[in-house]
Design goal:
mainly alpha; homotetramer; 81% helix; Heme Oxygenase, Chain A
């Protein structure tokens, strides 16, 4: 069993609340009101800026050139690929990248992003990656589930991106990296703290969906 | 005009929402339900653990021995004095310090504390102190206002602590330090970013009061 | 006058000791013993790993997407271009990249790299970039001087890299960025501390050349 | 066997070079020239400022209130006790605390202090404490050895401080904390990296003694 599976199994209830959140289900069925998706995408754009910073922090905190390279690849993927989809969607609504960068951050956006970054600063590379896992790996899981049942809808390109081989590979690499980091940075005595970090991060993802479902 | 007054003036609306929040007014008049105060105190205890860490971060980020000493004094004040009041209140409700340390953190507690700590990590000592200011200096302002109008109520010892000369001196020193740090670390070109930090931190304080008023 | 020129003018003596160091002159004239260059290149490889981490730290500490992108470009340039030259040289001596990564770090390598990284952690993006400046911009200056007087020698490809338009553009961008960061992060009151950082970083570069000239 | 004993055993050669350094032996026998001790004390004062910052960083990086309290006690001990001895010595030579704070830092002072702080920033509380261990625990060992053989000399008060029960208790607590942190943060897979950190930190201590023995 991978570390990720273990973390997920030990936090099943909150994990399900995240993966099967009402926002996700409406997005999959296509009934999600556009203003909710619009709100989500704006906040997610701000979110990704801080996630890019989290990958940069991972590169800084790396002890080997291999880990620096992997984190840099993740950083570039966010800046070049993932944000590209947002920019493309937003352009179709008449929003520029600068408009999005200037949006006020919702409390929920602040909560999750700063939790991750602060966990990374206070702890080590493993703490940082465990805090990032619900996002990186969870989105791959969501993408997979929605793609399997999806009848093409307005949100198909979002679903396709996270269901794509490219993104699935990123998530698979993240799962492997967690195991590798646990092996050379941690031991059984650290599991409880990591599981708490995972649960808190997942809870903050749930709150992020909830915020997206209820635009102010 | 001090930097703090300028920040407050430029963010009057959110500052008033914080200082005159319903939670504060009910606390002052004594009508606040005990379970709200109880909930607040538990979350504030977790909050203070991270605020102690923020002062420790300030000591680390100091460039002079004088700044190290001032931050260490702040750190000791939180650990020894401010948390003491919480422990005393909680003991009267049959809660131990360990019980409080084990409480689940509310999203709102995470949001403000990690925002402050992350701002401090990403920026310098001035960024950190501007993020801390709504808490440190705002509580002194609230203590003063409530003490002026207070007819002794169940929350009198809370009000007295923040209205005390000792706490008022801490807030006055924080105001001076902001001016000193601005003088030797910043310039006019930096004001806009600092004002945004101040506004975000104050908004997160408002959300913290709101959470306290609505225990789950 | 740019901030960089001002820093250089106010620290002329140590700056000259760095730019005109015996190691640099022997490298330019080609009389530098190969074992010195070999030793230098090995330590510089370790140095670059930490410099890549410094650019990652800069990306983390950025407040705008534009700054994140600029730092990421710098990070990629080190990993992909600058280290490539080292790998190429070392391959010609029968050294692999893994051999180099496993070399023991000289005290002088530790001193400069950790000084820069720690300055960046304790301070803000400007502190970090001022600590990086003697390296980034100084190497461009050295490359220029040596290229102007160079009769092709064994070290020509090293000189060419730092004299190349590509590297000169990196240095020119760094000079502009220092001015921009000073404008929006600092003011005159901060200059003295920045000048001290610049002087210390340059002194540590001098010690690095000296170490390279005297392999153990 | 404690983690500290294991680290020491696996790095015996460099550990002996540190504990039995010529500077230490001359200090013990009293033949150390006063200008060497004077030089040492000035640099050690700067060193302690950064060590105070390292304890502050440890408080920030703590996950429990107990660890925050222990780090804060260490921070206060440096500021209030250990630096007090330096101030007292220096006063007898006509040097003020401000004079010492303004001394230029030697490369060797920069190297060790920034190595420790950067290791702490990049890694977690255990990485930080392993980097601090040669200093904290090594000084207790040196104090013990010198006190056992000491015929009262000019440096007796220095020796007495590090041989005192108070300082020995600090070192004993540090040894226990290493074991506790290893238990709940690490595992066998991490030992090699920790041992390398320990070896590098000890090497930097050797260089610090050497610098003290050879005042510029």
């Amino acid at each position: 069993m991978t570390l990720f599976e273990r973390l997920k199994n030990d936090n099943q209830s909150i994990w399900s609340a995240y993966i099967q959140h009402e926002f996700v289900q409406q997005l999959g069925s296509g009934v999600l009101p556009e203003r909710c998706f619009h709100h989500y995408l704006g906040q997610d754009y701000l979110f990704l800026i801080h996630f890019a910073r989290a990958y940069a922090l991972a590169a800084y905190k790396s002890e080997t050139l291999a880990d620096i390279r992997q984190a840099t690849a993740g950083l570039s993927a966010i800046i070049d690929l993932e944000m590209g989809l947002h920019v493309q969607f937003c352009a179709s609504w008449g929003l520029t990248e600068a408009d999005m960068e200037a949006l006020p951050e919702a409390d929920e956006t602040i909560a999750y992003t700063r939790f991750v970054l602060e966990k990374g600063n206070a702890g080590d590379l493993l703490d940082l990656h465990v805090a990032l896992a619900p996002c990186i790996i969870g989105y791959a899981e969501i993408g997979n589930i929605l793609a399997a049942s999806n009848n093409a809808n307005a949100y198909a390109s979002w679903i396709e991106m996270y269901a794509s081989d490219e993104y699935q590979d990123v998530a698979a690499a993240a799962i492997l990296q967690l195991d590798r980091l646990f092996e050379y940075r941690a031991g059984e005595g650290r599991y409880a703290v990591l599981s708490k970090t995972f649960a808190q991060a997942t809870q903050l993802e749930v709150s992020f969906w909830q915020m997206a479902l209820n635009p102010a």
